[in-house]
Amino acid sequence: MTSKIEDIGRLFQKRRKELGITQAQLGERCGVTKSEISKIEHGRPITFSTINKLSEALGVSAEIALRPNIPVSSDMIHFVVMSMGLFARQYNLTKKEACNYLSRFKGLRFSIDNYEAEHQLSLRDCVEDMYAVCKRNGGEAV
Predict the structure, then answer these.
(1) Rounded to an integer, what distance in angstroms lies between the CA atom of residue 40 and that of residue 62?
(2) Cα–Cα distance measured from residue 45 to residue 11, given in angstroms and rounded to the nearest whole number
(3) Which of 49, 66, 87, 131 is the residue whose CA sits 20 to 30 A from 41?
(4) How far is CA 39 from the centre of its chain?
(5) DSSP letters along 26-83, please?
(6) Residues in the chain where the model's pLDDT stays below 50
């Protein structure tokens, strides 16, 4: 779930609604008022401590990462799309399911971060590498 820090309130709101709980119930779970939950959901700045409390109460994990910008070429985009497509076919998934799986378990990030080495391999080898990374990051067998 990658997003801008300014959008975190909306992400918490979405998750709260998925769980079917009110702002007051969420506030009780993490020790803040309903009014504070409302303000957060509408874009009020939030501390890391509150992010952690809300994440725990909503059964999600929050991740903050700083990564150097990687220049993206059309070749890299083509490689990633082709790898994802083969991954979907190989594991009998839709492209959306493959994309979600690879994103969630960091296979996509691996293929982007290691593009220079991976694009020199066969696509089948790349798919195997992505699957191994996903498995290592908690992905179930697909």
Answers:
(1) 15
(2) 14
(3) 66
(4) 24
(5) HHHHHT--HHHHHHHHTT----HHHHHHHHHHHT--------------HHHHHHHHHH
(6) 1-2
